[in-house]
Structure formats: C-alpha cells, structure tokens
Amino acid sequence: MKKIVAVLTSWGPLGLLVLAILDSAGIPLPAAVDALVVATAALNPPSAYLDAAMAVLGSAIGSMVLFYIGRKGGQAYLDRVAAGGRAHRFREWFQTYGLITVFIPALLPIPMPLKVFVLSAGALGVKPLNYLLVVLAARIPRYFGLAYLGSQLGEHTMGWLKAHVWHLFVFAAALAAALALAVRLVSRESRSPKHP
C-alpha cells in the first residue's frame, strides 16, 4: 500500500484526487489524504488550494461510491452488525441525527469512525444530494484548512495538529452537541401543532 501511495504522490494533484477517491470509497488509508494535502501545501504553497480542491473532489466521489454501496447492500450489513433491539434503536437514532454522524468525522482531521455512517446513510435512505452536501460542507473546510496550515506552518503542521488534538476533540463534541440540539429543536417545532 505504501508503494501505491508513493506513486500517487508523485502524480501531484491528480494523485491526490485518486488517493482521496480510494480513501473515501472504503479503502483504509489512515490520514494519507490529510498528510498529502499538508505535504504538497508545504512543498508548493501556490498549488495548495488546487491540491485541496482535488482532495475535496476525490473525497466527494469516493464517498458517493461508498454511499451507493450502502444503498445496495448496506441493509444486510446493518442487520448483521446491529441485530435485534439494537438495530431498531440505531435506526431511530440515525433517523434523528444521521447526517451529524457523517459531518463531524468528515470535518475533523482526527481519526473518527466514518465509513459505517456513510454505509448507514445509504442503507437507511438518506437522499443522495443531502448526503453529498453534508460531505462537501465538511470536506471543504477540512482540506482547505489543512492546505492553509501546510502553506503557513510547513513541516510543523502535523505536529501542530497533534499538539492540539484535544482542542479538536472538544470542538467536535461542542459542534456535535450544538447540531444535535438544533436537530431536536427543529424536529420538536415541526411536530408541534400549528395554531391559527
């Protein structure tokens, strides 16, 4: 796998596109896309945002591939992973908070489970456009932020991210709580009877 990543790295922005497609389609390449966005931004700051755009595009394509895999066979996967009452509770929970579970790990450059939620989104009937918009809303700031950090901090970017991992976790928790609260408020408002 390291040889494949090395070859794709030598391809420049096109390699980053392919790497992002593979990573988001379910082939495990932990932090490879993040590291490559940072490295290319540090080595060639003028192309940092082109590289970020290619990572976003590749991630969107790969995520849609995994989403449609979930659409075709994800129900069997969910039945196998979450059997019985757990499956029902998971479905209810995902129906309420579903795309938050995709947004948070897709946004943050720290290892968090994402693929199971992508498969779940496909299996549980999330609209493809809604799913894609959530992925883009998360990946654009992630990859453009990494490109910015790489162009400014250079080789120190990954160290900076590691030094601030707890800040990122706190940010993720606060963001997840705020989004969950917003979902509950909107859901409660839409269910309340309307008075003339």
Describe this structure in words.
The protein is mostly helical and 196 residues long. The protein has one domain. 81% of the residues lie in helices and 0% in strands. It is built from nine helices and no strands. It has helices at 2-10, 13-24, 32-43, 48-81, 85-107, 115-123, 128-153, 157-163, 165-191. Helix 3 packs antiparallel against helix 4 (48-81) and helix 3 packs across helix 7 (128-153). It is globular.
Major sheet details: none
Shape: globular
In percent, how helical is the residue content? over 70%
Q: What is the gyration radius calculated from CA atoms?
A: 18 Å
The number of helical segments is 9
**What's the number of domains?**
1
- Structural class determined from secondary elements: mainly alpha
Task: Give me some keywords for this one.
0% strand, single chain, 196 residues, 9 helices, mainly alpha
Layout of helices and strands, plus pairs?
Elements: H1 2-10, H2 13-24, H3 32-43, H4 48-81, H5 85-107, H6 115-123, H7 128-153, H8 157-163, H9 165-191
Helix pairs in contact: 1-2, 2-3, 2-4, 3-4, 3-7, 4-6, 4-7, 5-6, 5-7, 5-9
Short description:
With 196 residues, the chain is mainly alpha-helical. Helices cover 81% and strands 0% of the residues. The protein has helices spanning 2-10, 13-24, 32-43, 48-81, 85-107, 115-123, 128-153, 157-163, 165-191.
